[in-house]
Specification:
Elements lengths: L1 E2 L5 E2 L13 E2 H17 L3 H17 L1 E2 L3 E6 L3 E4 L2 H18 L2 H17 L25 H18 L3 H10 L14 H10 L3 E8 L4 H13 L4 E8 L5 E4 L6 E4 L7 H5 L7
Parallel strand pairs: 7-8
Antiparallel strand pairs: 1-2, 3-5, 4-5, 5-6, 7-9, 9-10
């Protein structure tokens, strides 16, 4: 169980436990949920998937307002709304939940957050503000930050690929176009932006994996996809199956597959599906 600074056991509503302090942070928990979803199929541990979905349900139910999206943290009550990172990291985690479950509800929830960011955080000169409303201290000053906008761009690209709505690709470009200076002073902090820019310049490609969770063949297939098709903006959708591990390239009537062996995954197969970024 979690223990607070006075040595007392802590447990939040819904059974979510904090082992660091008494507060549940939206951005950090969203990233943990994404990691748990990935780990659930890699290691064949379905309880990690259940845990991730429970975390997302808690955040959506207890740390959100319909008008301003996600709150930043929960200390018994939700606190501090409208931070850009909370919206985009929660949105990305919801899209991960959609990829691993196929449940349309998660994509709809992610899209709600995306629309709120467009409505509440847009900087008319380019990019997105880190806050949607002013608050105390540093929250008095809306800032357009490189790291936050890199994450926002990646979220909008994933939302575009999930929904097929080109509006979200334009939203990603709005985040990217705000920064045209020398990135060297940012050092490693430019990495989120750089990854988003690389994804923006890449053609999207959906990969569907059907396999038993933890299956070693599935890991070999996905490793081959990520190495040999790394020039694409990949979206991996995972579905449990008792059959032999297989991947499909593309998501539609012209998809390629099933592919059962890693050595059969070559870039020419993907190139036959589409040629330009979308």
């Amino acid at each position: 169980l979690g223990v607070d600074s006075q040595g007392r056991t802590t447990r939040t509503p819904g059974g979510i436990i904090s082992i660091i302090d008494d507060w549940i942070y939206t951005d950090a928990n969203a990233q943990v949920a994404s990691a748990f979803l990935e780990a659930s199929w890699v290691f064949g541990r379905p309880k990690l998937k259940q845990r991730a979905l429970a975390v997302l349900e808690f955040l959506w139910t207890n740390c959100r307002t319909a008008d301003n999206g996600m709150f930043h943290y929960h200390d018994g009550e939700p606190q501090v709304t409208g931070l850009l990172n909370d919206q985009t990291l929660m949105g990305a985690a919801l899209l991960d939940a959609y990829r691993f479950t196929g449940n349309q509800r998660y994509m709809d929830q992610a899209e709600k957050l995306g629309k709120l960011v467009l409505s509440n955080n847009s900087n008319p000169n380019g990019g997105y503000y880190d806050i949607s409303e002013r608050g105390p201290g540093h929250l008095r000053f809306p800032l357009t930050l490189l790291v936050d906008n890199g994450r926002a761009a990646s979220f909008f690209l994933s939302l575009c690929d999930a929904t097929g709505n080109p509006e979200y690709r334009r939203a990603a470009l709005w985040a990217l176009r705000a920064f045209t200076d020398d990135f060297a002073p940012y050092g490693v902090y430019a990495s989120d932006y750089a990854l988003a820019l690389a994804r923006y310049m890449s053609s999207p490609l959906t990969i569907k994996l059907e396999a038993r969770p933890g299956d070693s063949d599935s890991r070999r297939l996905v490793r081959a996809v990520r190495i040999r098709l790394g020039q694409y903006r990949l979206t991996l959708c995972v579905r449990d199956s008792e059959s032999s591990a297989a991947v499909y390239l593309g998501d539609g009537p012209e998809r390629v597959g099933p592919i059962f062996h890693a050595e059969e995954i070559i870039s020419e197969l993907a190139a036959s599906l589409q040629d330009t970024p979308a």
